[in-house]
């Protein structure tokens, strides 16, 4: 399991193409892109880089929804040629590709094994749909060669195309960047698969939770593809690592309504990232994930599901409680962290007296990790002395 993140494609270093359309997508210029579209410029062909990046990839990372919608209009119009078929994607043949040889081998009707090809002459009309057969009729049949030639050009229309190094789809990125119009259009397009994983095993629902896109989350769980979503603990992890309390509370409630016990939910094991202190990933439950995160809301305004002291006292794989981890937390700003520690110790004071597997209290962690003028140590010391009265314990 991994936290949701995206590596943006926003600069010329990522693009080895001399194509104007790539450059205007990178430079986020809607007017220039529209001019090229009106001039019937090829919007599909990928650049010359190793990654083979399409103009749409740069547009999706532009954070400019108007730029994306210009391209999406054409994608959807071109794909409408497939409406009466079972296909969801097609190769594109522009006028320069429509050689006599290609047209000779194209068929009007699909065969048992074939590839759809759109004969695209402009960016304003629906292209003509033809097919190239994968089954050769005779020794002079060049269909496979023609398919390979068009495929090598990386010129195709596919709304499920995995557009970047992380293998994110357009829907992944629409959710991550919260492109509302793009999201709803992709969501309601029957040619878009709503449950595809990227290279990290994250589907679109993981992205909606991890990027705190509540509207997208509720839209997705109503789809038949996610009928059994609440049987997958990875969604609890994404909610915890996102730090969005209301979303976490809803998901947790759904798991409990399903019949899961609180013990079962607390025993789900997730990765806990404390890279500043521990290069190797440790394993813990959702309490530990929250304690290592950026958001203090879980502590200052906790989800009220009445977990027991034993649940709060649980330890991660390296022997730390959630309070030990919270003291070490380098993601949260100091003011929020101190507030979170106070609130947690107010409701669960016993955590101040629980030692890790090496016999250290949270106070000891504060003593050797406080880099903010000893503010954290002073506060922990004041709180701890109310619970631990043995000075040997404090100064061991």
User: Structural class from helices and strands?
Assistant: alpha+beta
**Largest sheet data:** 4 strands, mixed
Main-sheet strand order equals: 3-2-1-4
Order of helices and strands: HHHHEHEEHEHHHHHHHEEHHHHHHHH
Q: Which percent range fits the helix content?
A: 40-55%
- What's the CATH architecture of the largest domain? Alpha Horseshoe
Q: Could you name the ranges where pLDDT drops below 50 across 5 or more consecutive residues?
A: none
Instruction: Give the mean pLDDT.
Output: 89
Tell me the name of the CATH class of the largest domain: Mainly Alpha
Total beta strands: 6
From the alpha carbons, calculate the radius of gyration and give it in angstroms.
Answer: 27 Å
Contiguous helical run count? 21
Distance N to C terminus: 37 Å
The geometry reads as: elongated
- What do we call the CATH topology of the largest domain? Serine Threonine Protein Phosphatase 5, Tetratricopeptide repeat
CATH homologous superfamily classification of the largest domain? Ankyrin repeat-containing domain
Describe this structure as you would to a colleague.
This is Ankyrin repeat protein. InterPro entries: Ankyrin_rpt, Ankyrin_rpt-contain_sf. The chain is α+β, with helices and mostly antiparallel strands and 396 residues long. The chain folds into three domains: 12-75 and 159-227, Ankyrin repeat-containing domain (Serine Threonine Protein Phosphatase 5, Tetratricopeptide repeat), CATH 1.25.40.20; 89-158; 230-395, Serine Threonine Protein Phosphatase 5, Tetratricopeptide repeat, CATH 1.25.40. The protein is built from 21 helices and six strands. It has helices at 20-26, 30-38, 55-60, 65-79, 100-105, 143-152, 170-176, 180-187, 204-210, 214-221, 234-242, 245-257, 262-266, 286-291, 297-300, 309-312, 322-328, 334-347, 362-369, 375-384, 391-395; strands at residues 89-93, 114-119, 128-133, 156-158, 270-272, 282-284. The strands form two sheets. It has a four-stranded mixed beta sheet with strand order 3-2-1-4. Strands 5-6 form a two-stranded antiparallel ribbon. β2 (114-119) and β3 form a beta hairpin. α7 (170-176) packs antiparallel against α8 and α7 packs parallel to α9 (204-210). The mean pLDDT is 89.
């Amino acid at each position: 399991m991994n936290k949701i993140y995206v590596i943006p494609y926003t600069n010329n270093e990522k693009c080895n193409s001399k194509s104007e359309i790539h450059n205007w997508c990178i430079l986020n210029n809607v007017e220039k892109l529209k001019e090229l579209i009106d001039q019937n410029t090829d919007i599909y062909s990928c650049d010359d880089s190793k990654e083979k990046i399409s103009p749409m990839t740069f547009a999706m990372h532009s954070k400019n929804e108007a730029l994306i919608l210009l391209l999406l209009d054409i994608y959807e119009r071109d794909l409408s040629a497939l409406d009466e078929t079972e296909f969801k994607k097609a190769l594109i043949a522009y006028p320069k590709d429509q050689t006599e040889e290609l047209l000779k081998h194209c068929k009007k009707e699909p065969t048992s094994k074939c590839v759809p090809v759109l004969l695209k002459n402009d960016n304003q009309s629906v292209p003509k749909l033809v097919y190239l057969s994968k089954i050769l009729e005779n020794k002079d049949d060049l269909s496979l060669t023609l398919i390979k030639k068009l495929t090598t050009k990386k010129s195709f229309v596919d709304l499920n195309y995995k557009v970047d190094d992380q293998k994110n789809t357009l829907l992944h990125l629409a959710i991550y960047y919260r492109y509302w119009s793009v999201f709803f259009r992709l969501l309601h397009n029957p040619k878009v698969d709503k449950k595809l994983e990227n290279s990290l095993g994250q589907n679109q629902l993981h992205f909606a939770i991890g990027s705190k896109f509540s509207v997208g989350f509720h839209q997705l769980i109503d789809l038949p593809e996610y009928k059994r979503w609440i049987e997958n603990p990875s969604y609890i992890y994404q909610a915890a690592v996102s730090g969005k309390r209301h979303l976490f509370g809803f998901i947790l409630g759904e798991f409990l309504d399903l019949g899961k016990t609180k013990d079962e939910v607390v025993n789900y094991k997730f990765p806990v990232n404390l890279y500043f202190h521990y290069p190797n990933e440790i394993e813990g439950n959702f309490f530990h994930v929250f304690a290592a995160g950026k958001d203090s809301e879980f502590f200052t305004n906790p989800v009220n599901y009445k977990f027991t002291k034993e649940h709060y006292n649980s330890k991660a794989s390296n022997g730390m409680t959630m309070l030990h981890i919270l003291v070490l937390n380098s993601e949260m700003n100091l003011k929020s962290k101190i507030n979170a520690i106070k609130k947690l110790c107010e409701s669960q004071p016993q955590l101040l007296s629980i030692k890790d597997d090496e016999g250290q209290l949270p106070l000891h962690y504060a003593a050797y990790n406080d880099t903010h003028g000893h503010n954290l140590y002073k506060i922990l010391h004041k709180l701890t002395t109310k619970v631990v009265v043995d000075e040997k314990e404090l100064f061991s």
